[in-house]
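Quick one: C-alpha cells for this chain, please?
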Amino acid sequence: MSEIKKKILDALDVETFFVCENEEEARGLALGLMAEMGFSQADVVFLETKGPGARVRVRTYVHRPGNRYGWL
C-alpha cells in the first residue's frame, strides 16, 4: 500500500460522470476504474442516469473498523 493510501482514515469515494448506455454499463465502468486504481473491493453507492450517461459515486474501504491502521 502506498504511503498516501496509508493516511486514509476509513474510506475513499470517487464520483464522476461516465458516457454510457445504461446503469449496468455505468456500474461496470465504476468498478473497473476502482480496480485499475488498485482497489479490489468497491461498492457503487450512488448511480443516476442523465442525458448521455450516468453520474456514479463509488466507495472503497481502505481501513475497516478493527483493521491494522497504517498511521499507527
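The domain at 3-61 is CATH 3.30.30.60 (Defensin A-like).
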